[in-house]
């Protein structure tokens, strides 16, 4: 009876983990940005970007699922600080997208795109990492960690399928549309970046005001 109860609890927590991680990761945003950034690439190059993105995102999320709470504690890193850092990275990516003219991509370019922004901060950004850490730090123990890994795998699988077939869907809008989409996506990425920073600053504001009050500045 205890085993059945534990299994039912595991299934329930697994559903929560899958839904939470997938929702926070937001694969649709990753697919849209991937489609814009890989415009003009061949099939092999796109596949290389997808594979590298998936590997990096899984390694990072798995690492934080196992040691995230410890790392944040040791280095005294806060979630708002992570959000601000991710926003700054995305601003750099967005400006690069706006300046892009569809040049040929080198191997280094493919690696760079896969790492920033597709792996971080889109696939494993501050929100996703925080969600993974919080879920893995719960009272469920080893079963909770297994459920978190299941959630990570499902969320990344959704992103994988989306990136694999996303360009085909976007190609239906035609060549002229494809010229416009990357620029529109750049604006969206820029908006996401600014929102990351706003969220981080808003969350850090009480702590900052408290610090200023203690130092007598305010």
Would you kindly provide a written description of the structure presented here, covering whatever features stand out?
The protein is built from eight helices and no strands. The chain is mainly α and 218 residues long. The chain has one domain.
Tell me briefly what this model is.
Helix content is 85%, strand content 0%.
Walk me through the topology.
Layout: H1 2-25, H2 27-37, H3 43-75, H4 79-99, H5 107-123, H6 126-136, H7 142-170, H8 175-214
Helix pairs in contact: 1-6, 1-7, 2-5, 2-7, 2-8, 3-5, 3-6, 3-7, 4-5, 4-8
Strand content: under 5%
Q: How many E strands? A: 0
Helix content: over 70%
Based on secondary structure, the structural category is mainly alpha
What would you call the shape?
Answer: flat
Poorly predicted residue ranges: none
Rounded to an integer, what's the Rg over CA atoms?
19 Å
Report the major sheet. none
């Amino acid at each position: 009876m205890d085993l059945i109860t534990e299994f039912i609890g595991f299934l329930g927590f697994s559903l929560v983990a899958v839904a939470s991680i997938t929702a926070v990761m937001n694969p649709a945003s990753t697919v849209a940005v991937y489609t814009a950034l890989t415009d003009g690439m061949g099939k092999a190059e796109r596949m290389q970007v997808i594979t590298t993105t998936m590997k990096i995102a899984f390694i990072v999320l798995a690492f934080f699922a196992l040691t995230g709470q410890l790392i944040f504690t040791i280095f005294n890193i806060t979630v708002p600080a992570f959000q601000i850092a991710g926003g700054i990275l995305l601003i750099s990516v967005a400006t690069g997208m706006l300046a892009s003219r569809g040049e040929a991509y080198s191997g280094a370019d493919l690696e760079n795109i896969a790492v920033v922004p597709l792996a971080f901060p889109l696939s494993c950004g501050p929100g996703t990492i925080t969600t993974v850490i919080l879920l893995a730090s719960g009272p469920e123990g080893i079963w909770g960690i297994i459920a978190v890994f299941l959630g990570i795998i499902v969320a990344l699988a959704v992103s994988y399928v989306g990136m694999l077939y996303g360009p085909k869907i976007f190609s239906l809008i035609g060549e002229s549309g494809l010229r416009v989409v990357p620029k529109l996506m750049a604006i969206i990425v820029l908006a996401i970046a600014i929102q990351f920073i706003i969220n981080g600053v808003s969350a850090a504001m009480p702590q900052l005001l408290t610090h200023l009050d203690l130092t007598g500045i305010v």
